[in-house]
Write the structure tokens for this entry.
Amino acid sequence: MHHFRFTQRKLAVALGILAVAYTVQAYRIPEFTAVETPVQPGSLPRVLGLVLFVLSVALFFQKPKAKEESGPVPKPKPEPVSVSELVSKPEPPGGGPVGQQSAPPIGRFSDTRLELAALLAAIGLYAALFVPLGFVLSTALFVSGLAWHLGYRRHAVNALVGAGTALGLYFVMSEGLEVALPMGLLPF
Amino acid sequence: MDAFSHLMGGFGVALSPQNLLFVFLGVLIGTVIGMLPGLGPISAISLMIPVAFTMDPVSAIIMLSGVYYGAIFGGSTSSILLNAPGVAGTVATSFDGYPLARKGQAGKALSIAAIASFIGGTVGVIGLMLVAPSLSSLTVSFGPAEYFALMVLGLTAVVSLSGGNVTKGLISGTVGVMIALVGIDSQTSVLRFTFGHEELYEGVEFLIVALGVFALAEVFAMLTRRGQGAQTGAISSLRLNKREVKEISGPTGRGSVLGFFVGVLPGAGATVASFLSYSLEKRLAKDGKTFGKGNIKGVAAPESANNSAAVGSFVPLMTLGVPGSGTTAVLLGALLVLGVQPGPLLMTEQPDMFWGVVASMYIGNVVLLILNLPLIPLFAKVLKTPQALLLPLVVVFCVVGVYGQSFSTFDLWLLIGFGVLGFLMRANDFPAAPLILGVILGGLMEKSMRQALLISSGDLSTFVTKPISAVLLALAAVSLLAPVFGQLRRRRRGRALPQDDGAGQDDPDEQGAKVDANVTRP
């Protein structure tokens, strides 16, 4: 995750720019004049834009926690562990999880950023092909293709799960819940 | 006695074969989803909302609340077996549950978790039954100004009690309200922030935000972890002996009561409750030193507290219509779409609904116990799902959930956008719960603010001259300032005592880290 960590200052600046853009946009909301109202449609957005700006200024001047800026730290305190980090904490060496050896890591690229870009591209492709190809085909391709890319080795099971999920969900959604998913190329 | 007869009526509703089936399904599905690492109650409920939309509102809320406590219980299973809490609320369970599992006592830990959850849940339901009616008769008198203040309090409390940086939490909340205001203004039909996209006229569906920021962001996070924590363990005997039952009875009882009251407070909830209960028992126990090395009390305490708090958080949701946590916020969103407006009038206007839910919680708890104890070994197989396969499946569920609601590809792109946003927020320690709360409360907040100002003919002082509203706003201010003062105090104290063990209790993240730091894993 560290690739996607930005310093507090950079975040604050980005948020400040967002706040200004938002506030400008909020002032361009037309006034409502048909009936007199104390609260214009633009009132709350303007306040919010201002609040966000103040907060980003506060964030800019706030002292970041020790782990973010590698300045001289007087005392090594235990790092605050957020929940996600707690989850991601690597296992202590020697003892894997209860009774089993650890599975190979998922993904093919050594660079996590590349892997994430690939995932994002795959989801984007899925969304783009969702209607033209239809739910069943696009879903089966997406599930099996992505699982294969991530390193799932049992190809027969993979194909079965992909097709099974696609058909199963399609059936449940269209028959059980009467939600019409795109049919695409398939005749049903 | 009145409550009792209502409750009987509620059982009538909940015990209808159809609703019984939904309780069962909800608990089962919730447990399975909650067990999958990374997927917690919010993801579970969001994933089930598209299904709920097709159902009648009473059955839908019964099923969704089943999903909620099922997911919390399921989360404890993955905490114990994998040290991979699917939910923040079960992080504390992993401190002792996982060491127990490593000692070959996974079965024991799981049955303690099941029993403690059952007791916690039951105490919570009794509390809900007792507290909710009186609270709702108090809040019937709430006008728009009071509601506005209450929603502000709800937002700030979630920000301050979720721990971490208050400024970042407030930023999340503000952006959430901003997202809520996109679309045609309901009162004046003026377009706001639609940037010429017709798809945005109706606003951004909260489900898209919830699925993106929680479920899809979790997929990205799963990938950056490279599937660590996706393995499973064997399960030993589930039996407890008499001495052990006696040992856990105290922590379970205290945890249940504590959990309920923490759950009722807006902003607190299962996570805070479980950490509080864990640290309380650690201090009370004579063998407190063994906490973190596989003490069964360390499983019973957080488990009873988080389940009880989960039920407790229904109190503000059902009586005030203001959710106290991210999860109940998602539930509120679902209710609003189903055409149910929770609030003080819910109990008088739709008693079936309220008492049906209360009764179904009783039933859900029983189902949870009888379902989980025998099925635990089977459930553990779910954990064997390789993440390489799980990951695309979660994406598909998100996509189906969004598309099945709006039939628009534009919303799929929005979903992806929110997924990226959620991931970046997580990587930079911005909490997601205030964002989703802002999205859900934003519209209501603006509406009640307008009504209040219309009544006072534009006089802003109406929010501070009305006593209840003034008190609520003052509480909101205090809730924001308290953590700041707490940090200052801690810093001063930290200088005096370098290795301070008794962390301030208002900061669950920090506290969690300290508890965790004390754990020396074998």
Summary: The radius of gyration of chain A is 25 Å. The first helix of chain A runs from residue 8 to 27. Chain A touches chain B through 87 residues (CB under 8 Å).
